[in-house]
Amino acid sequence: MNGYRLGFDIGGTFTDAALLDLSRGVCHVAKVLTTPDDPARGAMEAMTRLLEMTGVGGAELDAVIHATTLVANAIIERKGARTGLLTTRGFRDTLHLRREIRYDSYNLNPDWPEPLVPRQLIREVEERILADGTTWQPLDVASAESAAKELVAAGVQSIAICLIHSYQNDEHEQRLKEVFQRVDPATAVSLSSEVVPEFREYERTSTTVANAYVKPLVRDYLTKLDRELRKAGHRNALYMMLSAGGIIDAATAQDAPIRIAESGPAAGALVTGYLGTLAGYPHLIAFDMGGTTAKASVIDQGRPLMARDFEIARVHRFRKGSGIPVRLPVVDMIEIGAGGGSIASLDQMNLLKVGPLSAGADPGPACYGRGGTVPTVTDAQLLLGYLNPDYFAGGTMTLDRDAAERAIGTQIAGPLQLSATDAAWGIYRVVNENMASAVRVYLAEKGRDPRGYTISAFGGAGPAHVREVARPLRIRQIICPPAAGVLSAIGLLVAPPVVDLAQTYFTSLERADWTRINAIFQRMETQAGELLERAGVQRSAIHWERSADLRFAGQAHELTSLIPLGPLGAGSQDDIERSFFATYDKVYGSHHQSGSLIHALSWRLRAVGPAPTVGSVAWGRENRQDASPLKGTRAAYFGDAGRFVDCDVYDRYQLRPGMDVAGPALVEEDESVVVLGPRDRGRIDAYGNLVLTIGGNKS
C-alpha cells in the first residue's frame, strides 16, 4: 500500500478534488469547472492536475472515492431513462395520488412535480400479498409477461417493480424480475423489496421509481469513469459516497444508485465530525455556505444526525413536501436559500430581501465582470472589504469593485437613500439573519440548544459569514478548517465503508415474535457482510449497530432508537423501551407515559468498516515557500465599530499550529476568507483548524 487516496466531488459549478498522501500526511487540492455534458471529463481533469502537481502515478492510488450530483440533477432536469412501473392491480395511481397533503396550507392549488413515470407506462398485475406476508392471490405469470412485453414495446429502458406488501414477502417481485429478464435482458430492473423493503406504499413506490429512473444513466457513467481511471493507470476499486455518510464500491452503487443522490453534502458533514473529534469538539453544527445555498447539520459525538427520508426536485426548493420523496437513510440537514450568488432586491413594500434566487456562475454577481447586473452577497462582501479583488479564487479571477458598487447603488442604496456601504452592510446582515433564523428553528426541531455547540464553517462563503451567524445563536466558538472551499472532497478521504439496511415488521413489543426479529437481523447481517467484503472489509473488522423505529400506540410518527446486539428475546424488551424513552425525552422532553403500549415498525442495521487513519495533515504546504503569515492590511467594515477598520491580512497557508490571530483580521486562503471582528481572537490548533472565540479579544 502506497498510502494515496484521491477524492473528487462533482458539483453544479465546480469539481473539487483532494489527494491525500497518508505516509507523509500531506493533502493537495484542486478545483476545476464542472463539465455538465460529460461530468467524467471534469473529474479526470481534476485528477490529472493533482497527479501532475504531485508526481504521483495513477497506479499508486490505493483508492478513488467519488461524490456527485449526477443522480439528483438527472431527476431535477428529467434526463433519466424512460421508465415503466409494474404494480399490484388497484394501485396504478399511487404515484399520482401522492399523500393528498398540501405542503402549503393556504394554497388550494399547489404545484407538484410530475411523476417520473407517466400513467401510460404503468401496468398492473394480478397478485396479492397480505400485510402479514401470506399469499392471498398467486401471481398471474401470463398477465405479467403480457405487461412486460407492452412496456418493452413502448420503449421502456428501466422498470420499477413495486407490489403491495412485498416488504414482507418478495416472492412475486422476484418472479416478475425473472419475467422481465426473459422478455428483455437489457432492461434494468429495480425491486422495491431490494431498494427499500419498508412500509408506506407511496414513499416505497416513489423511491423505487427514482432508483429505476437513474439506474441506466449511473451504470453507463460509472462504467465510463472506471474505464478512464484505468487508462490513467488506476487498478483498484472505485468507491462512491452514500447519502448516509459512508462509502461503497461502485458496482454496489450501480444496483441502488438512488443511495448516492445526496453524496456531496454528506461528505461535508462527515468530515466535520471527523475533524471535530480529532480536535476535541464532539458537538458541532456543520455550516456549509457556497455560491447558491447554505446547509447546516448537527454533529453529536462526532456523528451527524441521520434522517430516514429526503426529497428531490422540489417545486419550491425550500418548501418541505413539494418534492419527490425518497425513503432512504441520509445525513439530516437543512438547506437555506443563501449563498454568495444570492440576489438582493426590494419587495413591494421597499423592504430589503436577499435570496433565495441566485445569480449562479454565469453571468454571476456583478463583480465577476461577466455581464451580471444584479446585486448579490458577493458584491456586498467586496464593498465591505472582506474580499481582495486581486486574490479571488486564489488569484484566478479579478473582481470588479466598480460594477459591484453600481449594482448595489442603483438597485438598493439609491431607492433606500443609503450609502453604498450601508446598503452592502444591510445585504450582509439580512442574509446572515436569514441563515441564523433557519438554523435556530432547525435546532429547535431537533431538540438542541445552540449554546451547547461549536459551529464549523466551510464552503467558499461560510468562513466569511459564520461570525454573524453564530452571534445571534449565542455561539461563541467557531472552527474554520483548512481548505474550507473543497472540504467535501476532503471528506471523501476519511469516510469508512458503510451499509445501511432496513426491514419492516410491525408489532407491539409485548407481542413481538423475537424469533422472526432475530431472523430479520441475521439476513441483514449476512447481506451487509457480503457487500462490505466486496469493498475489501473483513467481517471481523465490521462494527455493527442496530436500531428500530418505535412509537407509542396511536401516534403517527416514529423515532429511531438504538437496540442491543446479539440474540433478542423477551428479556430485551426493557432495554429497548429504555432506549426509546431516552430518545423520546431528548426530542420532546420528559413527557412520555410509563406503561404505554409501544409499537415497533421497521428494524434497521448499520454495518461500518474501518475508517482510514489520517491524523494530522499538512495542506499542500510543501509547494509554498515559508514566509511571514502577515500579508498586509486592508480596511473592512464591521457593525461592531460602525465604520471601516484597518485589519491585518494573513496568509492561511503560513499560519502554523500554536499561532494566534487577533481581530480585526482577515485570513485568506485560495478558496475562502475568514473574517475576525474587532474583539475576536483565533488560534491555529494542532490539526490546522483556525479556532475562533467571538468577543474573546478584550484589548
Descriptive account of the structure:
The chain has 699 residues and is α+β, with helices and mostly antiparallel strands. Helix content is 30%, strand content 27%. It has 16 helices and 35 strands. Strands 13, 14, 15, 20, 23, 24, 31, 34 and 35 form a 9-stranded mixed beta sheet that branches. It has a 6-stranded mixed beta sheet with strand order 3-2-1-4-11-12, with helices on both faces. The protein has a 4-stranded parallel beta sheet with strand order 6-5-9-10, sandwiched between helices. Strand 21 and strand 22 (352-358) form a beta hairpin. Helix 2 (70-76) crosses helix 7 (201-231), helix 10 (377-383) packs across helix 12 (420-445) and helix 11 (401-416) packs across helix 12 (420-445). The radius of gyration is 26 Å and the shape is globular. The two termini are 51 Å apart. The relative contact order is 0.10. The model has no long low-confidence stretch (mean pLDDT 89).
Label this structure with key terms:
6-stranded mixed beta sheet, alpha+beta, 699 residues, globular, 9-stranded mixed beta sheet, single chain
